[in-house]
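User: Hey, my collaborator sent me this sequence without any context and asked if I could get a structure. I don't really work with proteins. Can you help?
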Amino acid sequence: MLTLCCCLQLPAQVINVGDRFQDKETGVTYTVRDVRMDKYVYMTDQSEDNLLSLSRVDGREGEYALEPSRQADDPPIAGAEFGWPVKYSPEKGTLEFYTPQGRLLYTLEVVKVAEREDYRFNVSFGKDSEGYIGVIYVDGYTTTGDSPAFAFEHELVERLAEMPSPEEAANYVDDKTDINFDGIPDLQIYIGLNAVGRVSEYFAGFVWDDEDKCFAMVPGYDEISNPIVHPDTKTITSTARTDAVEITTWTMAWVGGHLEIIDETTSTFGDE
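Assistant: No problem. I've predicted the 3D structure and written it out in structure-token form, which is a compact way to encode the shape of the chain:
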């Protein structure tokens, strides 16, 4: 039997833009992208290739019908036909698909969306075949369930000879810094240092997507050497040794949702 989870923030009798539906069996998540004329509901999966469409039944609270979408010729719910009734009840915590004769086909569970402040992080490490500590694991748990809502795995830049203590492990996660300057704390995960030449530290970076209620990885953030966040100028600087006697500093800013280099300066050891 197909099982979906409908993620809603308010106990309303209608489905709204931003509500999310997850297929627990496949892990595919549908997000409501459009509600037209307060009647037609269009949802897409993460790739935006697959559509699930509903139309609201006039004058009936919480009642919809399964409808064709622009990109789907067959009903996305196995065993259903277009036009069959769908009943949404946040009070019961269900979204139910029925046959025209009133037989229940599927019951979909309603779950609470995790907000940014709901997240708590747990850090662990893995050993390689030689007994060195070479991988970091970070799981993010929320108040909405026992399973991790966020999971991260990454090889450390340099392997460790000893397992970090719980206090040291906790310092590998920075969930207080706002790296994209939108007023919401984001996530930096320390992935280690390179001590060859001038010491460089590296982090994986994730920004909080308040629309989809999830952490989104920042491409290339784990390649930034010694990132420093500057809230006053809304920039991030990176420094690295680029020559035997030179250090280069790159200044980056957010442009169109992506980090771009806006300045580059090189200094010689001893200049300062």
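In plain terms: Confidence is low (pLDDT under 50) at residues 1-11. You can pass these tokens on to your collaborator as they are.
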